[in-house]
TrEMBL record:
Domain annotation Solute-binding protein family 3/N-terminal: ranges: 30-236
Record has Glycoprotein as a keyword: no
Lineage: Bacteria, Pseudomonadati, Pseudomonadota, Betaproteobacteria, Burkholderiales
Segments crossing the lipid bilayer: none
Keyword ATP-binding annotated: no
Record's protein name: Transporter substrate-binding domain-containing protein
Annotated Gene3D superfamilies: Periplasmic binding protein-like II
Signal peptide start-end: 1-20
Organism, scientific name: Duganella vulcania
Length: 239
């Protein structure tokens, strides 16, 4: 009996050590490239994958990705089903998390197709449909336009760009890193006016209070990855 108990204790200890050696990263399974490419439920490419791998490498841990749809991410992270969720801002998530130092900065831009006059100021968009992503928040647009901010929601960035290309909408909101990625891949690229900057933002990692990794360790890994250029190199690859 004593031998069985010792064996169980060893197995439990080994399982706990294995968990503590992991970095569990949560990713929105509905994301598109360049943020994520999902095949058969597995994350195989994209910004989220590379951020997780870079941080895990600097922490001396093995990375494991947990894929969940957008509407389930917040509760799962609060419950400790993953250690962190990266490339977000505190304004984008509800719930009680710790927040890391900045991972990377980018900007949101307004893109207008060249078949209509360019937009010189956001105020010109009052009452005009603007392509947006379902579930994404745009407080800067709401502050400037109020009820005159007319959203035309799409499930993801790729379909939003397709709507612009087909003329279903003439204006969309998009992050510059995503725009650059698709314009590089698309042949021919969309014919658009120079993008109008809307806001710059600094993305961070939301860290679960019930996870197995301390915020201090995550911040240290981000700092090392910033100094050695691995985070900047990752973004360059997807532009």
């Amino acid at each position: 009996m004593r031998g069985i108990l010792l064996l169980m204790a060893c197995l439990l200890g080994a399982a706990g050590a294995a968990r503590s050696a992991e970095l569990v990263v949560m990713v929105d399974s509905t994301s598109n490239m360049p943020m994520a490419r999902v095949q058969d439920g597995r994350l195989v490419d994209g910004v989220h994958k590379e951020i997780g791998e870079i941080l895990a490498r600097h922490m001396g841990r093995q990375v494991r990705f947990v894929m969940l749809p957008r509407k389930r991410l917040e509760l799962a992270l609060q419950n400790g089903e993953a250690d962190l969720l990266c490339a977000y801002m505190p304004e984008w998530l509800s719930g009680d998390y710790l927040w890391s130092r900045v991972v990377f900065t980018t900007e949101e831009v307004l893109v207008t197709d060249a078949s209509v006059p360019p937009v010189r100021a956001i105020g010109e968009l009052r009452g005009r449909p603007v392509g947006t992503i379902l579930g994404y928040f745009h407080p800067e647009m709401e502050a400037l336009l109020g009820e005159d901010f007319v959203r035309d929601n799409a499930p993801n960035m790729e379909s939003n760009l397709a709507k612009l290309g087909r003329g279903r909408v003439h204006h969309i909101l998009i992050t510059r890193v995503v725009l650059d990625y698709y314009q590089r891949l698309r042949q021919p690229p969309l014919v658009i006016h120079p993008p109008l900057p809307v806001m710059a933002f600094a993305t961070r990692c939301a860290v679960s209070r019930k996870g197995h990794v301390a915020l201090r360790e995550i911040d240290q890994a981000i700092g090392q990855a910033t100094r050695d250029g691995s985070l900047a190199g990752m973004l360059t690859r997807f532009r």
